[in-house]
Design a protein that fits this description.
It holds the Pfam family MMR_HSR1. By secondary structure, the protein is α/β, with parallel strands linked by helices. It contains eleven helices and nine strands. The strands form two sheets. Strands 1, 2, 3, 4, 5, 6 and 7 form a seven-stranded mixed β-sheet that branches. A two-stranded antiparallel sheet has the order 8-9. The chain binds guanosine-5'-triphosphate and magnesium ion. Magnesium ion (MG) binds near residues 134, 135 and 149.
């Protein structure tokens, strides 16, 4: 999957597109990865959407720690923001989205009723940083492979609405937003969970970061899954995993293969459902 590499020009364009879309919708569906609810947010979204009703969807909950997901929902919710935690691949989420949208847009619905207008379907758009599940969300609703998101010239010309249900219409194009870059740890988490291209951060740095984090926060996830003893450094622990798994090249551990396979295990939640950011941090 080709990932966007963000440059200032890309960000300006994405911001401009987002501002165009925002004029057209009643509420915004922002998707974040439930495993990294902070790192997977766009640093400017709140400023861009101003007072527009805001629904945060925490996606990939099937790979996140369930107890932590509950806490995150609680922490992110407030009177302007609704939060839903979803497995976009296996859950039928339409009714929940619809319900949340109606709660968020209650003032608008009331206003239309007072004016004697029959409430029209609410309009919404999906946005979020790469890889959080935007296309999965839209495709599920559209029952088709939705259009490619990148490089669409003349946004307003190509706008299409998908009928979500009787109550909601969804913009068929997601707003692809940039993540926060100026924090090294955020960059590592994004790379670990696939939101930035693998070439941007070396696979070794990602693996070492993940192993270090797990040794500090959930060592049992490593010992149980790999059936190893934790070593004094992340590098030694990884080498132990490599030897245990027979990833050898002659007598030495094939480090490239080890690092790649370890990162893949994490992405696939092989060592368990881990949430990499704690509420109230
Ligand atoms: N396990 C799991 N995988 C998911 C979920 N939602 C999406 N995915 C997977 O995550 C990957 C990225 O999903 P996409 O829908 O392509 O994400 P996107 O936000 O459109 O990504 P870009 O187009 O790169 O910006 C795909 O492999 C999906 O199958 C979920 O809730 N659970
Ligand atoms: Mg997409």
């Amino acid at each position: 999957m080709a990932k966007i590499q963000w440059f200032p020009g890309h960000m300006t364009k994405a911001k401009r597109e987002m501002e165009q879309y925002l004029k057209l919708v009643d509420f915004v569906i922002e998707i974040r990865d439930a495993r990294i609810p902070i790192s997977s947010k766009n640093p400017m979204l709140e400023q861009m959407i101003k007072n527009k009703p805001h629904l945060i969807v925490l996606s990939k909950i099937d790979k996140a720690n369930p107890e932590m997901t509950k806490q995150w929902v609680h922490q992110l919710e407030n009177n302007r923001v609704q939060v839903l935690a979803l497995d976009l691949l296996h859950q039928n989420f339409k009714a929940q989205i619809s319900h949340a949208g109606k709660i968020l847009c209650q003032p608008l619905i009331e206003k239309q009723k007072r004016r004697g207008i029959r409430p029209r379907p609410l309009r919404a758009m999906v946005c979020g940083i790469p890889n959080v599940g935007k296309s999965t969300f839209i495709n599920t609703v559209a029952h088709k492979k939705a259009a490619q998101t990148a490089n669409r010239p003349g946004v307003t010309k190509s706008l299409q609405w998908i009928r979500f249900n009787a109550d909601i219409e969804l913009l068929d194009t997601p707003g692809v937003l940039w993540p926060k870059f100026d924090d090294e740890e955020i960059g590592l988490k994004l790379a670990l969970l696939g939101a930035v291209r693998d070439e941007v951060v070396s696979i070794e740095d990602i693996a070492l970061y993940a192993c270090d984090w797990m040794m500090k926060n959930c060592p049992e996830a490593l010992t149980n899954y790999y059936q190893i003893e934790i070593q004094s450094t992340p590098y030694e622990t990884l080498l132990t995993i490599g030897r245990k798994r027979g990833m050898l090249q002659g007598n030495e551990v094939d480090e490239d293969r080890l690092m790649k396979s370890f990162v893949k295990d994490i992405r696939d939640a092989k060592c368990g459902r881990i949430t990499w950011e704690f509420p109230n941090d």
